[in-house]
Amino acid sequence: MFGFSAIHVIGIVAGLALLYQSYRLVAARKEGIFEFLLWAGFGVGLLVISIGSALETVDLLAALEGGLSALGFARGTDSIFFVSNLLLLFVVFYTYVQLVESRRQLSDLTQELALLRYDLEQRTDDED
């Protein structure tokens, strides 16, 4: 019934770690709800694939292939590869957008700090 191997155990542990870490970061308000849903979704997906492929009575990959072929993909393995690459592209794009926003905020803060230093220097010069 169960055909657990080392890769299944690694997948289950990694999936649980993703879920726990996402929850911990949201609880500490270090992560937004969108990031939580993204990483928790990856964790749940990893758990489903790891447990589903370890069960010998359920052919999870055939079910995934059937579902993706219903969406219009030609072969199941190619469609799984395509969808996973699409998700990775989404994560890379999201990371890039966050990086650009962080750079903009850093630039704004640097300019504000320079103006505050200039204002402080002017005030100390006027007092002397």
Automatic annotation (TrEMBL):
The keyword Membrane applies. Keywords: Membrane, Transmembrane, Transmembrane helix. InterPro entries: DUF2304 (IPR019277). It holds the Pfam family DUF2304. The chain crosses the membrane at residues 6-26, 33-55, 79-97. It comes from the Archaea. This is DUF2304 domain-containing protein.
